[in-house]
From TrEMBL:
Transmembrane segments: none annotated. The keyword Flavoprotein applies. It catalyses: [thioredoxin]-dithiol + NADP(+) = [thioredoxin]-disulfide + NADPH + H(+). Residues 6-300 form the FAD/NAD(P)-binding domain. Keywords: Flavoprotein, Oxidoreductase. The lineage of its organism: Bacteria, Bacillati, Actinomycetota, Actinomycetes, Micrococcales. It comes from Microterricola gilva. This is Thioredoxin reductase. GO terms for molecular function: thioredoxin-disulfide reductase (NADPH) activity. The keyword Flavoprotein applies. SUPFAM superfamilies: FAD/NAD(P)-binding domain (SSF51905).
Amino acid sequence: MASGHYDCVIIGAGPAGLSAALNLARARKRVLVVDSNRPRNAATMISHGFITRDGVPPHELRRIAREELALYPSVEVLQRAAVLTVSPLDSADSDASAERFVIEISGATPSAARVVQSRSIVVATGLRETLPALPSIRAYYGMSLFSCVACDGYEQRDQPLALIGETDDLLERALLVAQWTNALTVFTNGVAPLSVADEAVLAAHGIRLDRRAIDDLEGERGAISAVRMADGERVPVTGGFVRPLWHPVVDFLDGFALATDERGHLTTDRDGRTSAPGIYAAGDVAAPGPQQLIVAAGAGARVAAVITHDLLGVTTAH
């Protein structure tokens, strides 16, 4: 079982983790990036809103980033690997220059397993998501049904759209989607608890509300054409959004009792520090904000700068 010593272990190689790795490498830190290679946006064909990379597939962004990291000899990237546990190092003290953590890592094969030590940890694992339990929803997800309104609203402008969800925040999401279309139907699948007052707000914005249970979705080759209700009626749409349930991926940190919000996201200060010294979080795993690649990349760059300062014990801004 291989071992090693690092300034930072970054868990997750999405835009937040890769950006943190690049900036730490440029600060001449020894970095290990651990990634399962199963990104949440694997179904998304095209990404948007990333300056100089608008319209580039997410997997292409990650490929370019890994190629850039390969130019820095102080960075290792483990793909198809997973962090099993993070534990405090028994001999760790309050000195920021000392190694604080032991990280147990599984690999693609048993021989690839590793146990390493690190001075700091960046959690950039993002989220797992659970879609509403409709038989065909995966056939459309990432092609004509999306979860990020800011990411994909523009391409669906002026079309008849669906917003499908079962959570208590559908009103706010509907108002966001309605910026791009005046033909929006919100489908609660008989579950989402929208009030009569919520319905009045939707109606005032020209948004239709359908509280009936959904049987399934219809369409061909990833292009949705209708939402089929349990009573047999078909509601025509040509695209839309779904509100998944999101679950932060932080099981390997169970031994730290880190502070989280009511939905399980890691809470941090403005610089990405969690409630445990030496553990930082960036991207969607942290308390929620816009779920855009460029926002996550910015968070990764910021937390890298903070770690560089913290490991030195300095607080200068530059």
